[in-house]
Specification:
Length: about 220
């Protein structure tokens, strides 16, 4: 179900609805504690990657593009076979893929745990099962695709920590699974918010996430 496109035709003239929806999305951001278990900041600069899925990749990509220490973010697909990593196939919800982002970051500037804190608090709602906002299907599931044992340990410990603290009021449904592959999405999906800032879907669902990042993480926010 390609839900994200229905805004472009059905609600493009409802500016009042867009403003109202933005207000509700903005209010849904959650303040959460730092992870108890995290990797220390590296002593020398380098590059590592994190692959996360939290609904439509447009908004998740846009959030992490504004995070200090992040040098690159790509939208793509993880969780299924590389042979089916095309948008039309993934959108059926039958390929096993989730819309994901690959984040390239400097572990001397930001830790993996801090990336997860942003992911859980402003990039998406980790209590929604197989959906985010108007988008439904397993391709919009919440998932952390760990690349090594350290990422696995940090991710699982943080999910357990947040669940014990009941910071969301509902259980976290985020899957923590091994990264098998990441396939970049089609070119027209990359930098989508930057290229289409006035689309109703972006205004309603994704702009508030970037604003929440700026408000909740001012020390980590950067202008793109």
């Amino acid at each position: 179900m390609i839900c994200k496109y229905f805004f472009l035709s059905a609600f493009i003239f409802l500016i009042g609805l867009a403003i109202s929806a933005c207000s509700s999305v903005t209010a849904s951001a959650t303040s959460i504690p730092d992870p108890d278990i995290d990797a220390p900041l590296a002593k020398v600069k380098g590059e590592e990657t994190a692959v996360l899925a939290g609904g439509c990749f447009w908004g998740v990509e846009a959030v992490f593009e504004h995070v200090k220490g992040v040098s690159d973010v790509k939208s793509g697909y993880s969780g299924g076979s590389t042979a089916t990593a095309q948008y039309e196939k993934v959108s059926t919800g039958e390929t096993g893929h989730a819309e994901s982002v690959k984040i390239t970051y400097d572990p001397a500037q930001i830790s993996y745990g801090q990336l997860l804190k942003i992911f859980f608090s402003v990039a998406h709602d980790p209590t929604e099962l197989n959906r985010q906002g108007p988008d439904t299907g397993t391709q919009y599931r919440s998932a952390i695709f760990y690349a090594n044992d350290e990422q696995k340990r940090i991710a699982r410990a943080y999910v357990d920590q947040l669940n014990r603290a009941q910071v969301f009021g509902r259980p976290i449904v985020t899957q923590v699974e091994a990264l098998k592959s990441f396939s970049e999405a089609e070119a027209y999906h990359q930098n989508y918010l930057t290229n289409h800032p006035d689309e109703p879907y972006i205004v309603i669902n994704d702009m508030p996430k970037v604003e929440n990042l700026k408000k909740q993480f001012p020390a980590l926010y950067k202008t793109k």
